[in-house]
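Give me the fold.
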Amino acid sequence: MNALNIHKGATSHSAYDLRDPNAEIEESHTLAVLVENEPGVLARVIGLFSGRGYNIDSLTVAEVDHTGHQSRITLVTRGTPAVIEQIKAQLGRIVPVHDVHDLTVEGPSVERELGLFKVSGQGEKRVEALRIGDIFRANVVDSTLESFVFELVGTPGKLDAFADLMRPLGLSELARTGVAALARGA
């Protein structure tokens, strides 16, 4: 009998599914890190991630206190709960870091991202791109006879969905800011 035959009642397992069924599942977490606004701080934070093989899905940085010279780094990363705890602990040990908040576990938060989408097309594709842009409440910030540039603010999922719909209509270029997030409430 051929080894590839599946017997009645037997379950089939793919050779490509090599994940340990008992392993912890990776989760996406949004971290807000308050740091001194001084040269090299961002490089040290990034070095922590690259040195340990962690990935950053999204990263935004801006000064939030001009008089106190503090910046806020908002980053989205993935990992098992143990890895996320390790990341938070290691971030907290970097000297110019004042505070580390895991917005994913600390309660409700608001996350937004800005995206610019250049869509090239004519005729029906152009009309359909404008219709979809209207549904998503995207603003047209530039227009030529050959293309539009849409501006869209929303959750990362909303921007992903908009990009997926615009690809067949002529999406030719895309720029995204990365996630900015704040905890809700007091």
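Residues 1-15 have pLDDT under 50 and may be disordered.
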